[in-house]
Amino acid sequence: MKKAILIIFTSLSIQLHAQSKNENNTDSVKNNPTSKEWNFGVELDVLPYATGGYFGAGWAGKDKWRVRGLYADVNRPDFVTKDGFTDHHVKAYALVLDRFLKDNWKGWWIGGGPVLWKSDIQSDSSNATKSFDNFLLNGSLGYNFTIYKNIYISPWAGLSLKVAGDDEFTLDNKEYNLPWLNPEASVKFGIYF
Q1: Are 134 and 117 in contact (CB under 8 A)?
Q2: CATH class assigned to 2-20+38-192
Q3: Disulfide check for 41: which of 16, 21, 83, 192 has CB 3.0–4.6 Å away?
Q4: For residue range 62-73, what is the model confidence (pLDDT) as tens digits?
Q5: Does the model's pTM come out above 0.70?
């Protein structure tokens, strides 16, 4: 699945790069800061791949606003998992609204929205596992650097607040409860058209 996502992202990047070379020297409507046209994009995030998972996001935006839908499959590192537990695996689904301070999807952005985490966790003293779900509200801040035309890199950080879902449970006589605050940071690569 990871390879398929990377192949699709690479193919889209190559196709869009080829199309941009065929344009004449005047700015296209999508690159005009006064444009009222919609843009669409896709993103990949480094963190899920670094933990053995994967990530995919698509977005649509107009002016300085964009809406992102994303899916992430993440294996949370044990150093951010409560002692006594291991292998915290999260499948996250989110819908996020972002606001850019500059035109053309450049510079600082701030965003937020609802997130659903479907998790599995294992006791570190046996093979016993538990599945649980939580609803969170995320707030994020990042900066888009243009690499080439419509291709960008975006370091970001965020904080998710647990607002609902499964509360404390016991696994192998150890209590677990997802923390109220869950920090994240990573780097995204994206392209828009």
Answers
A1: yes
A2: mainly beta
A3: 192
A4: 999 999 999 999
A5: yes
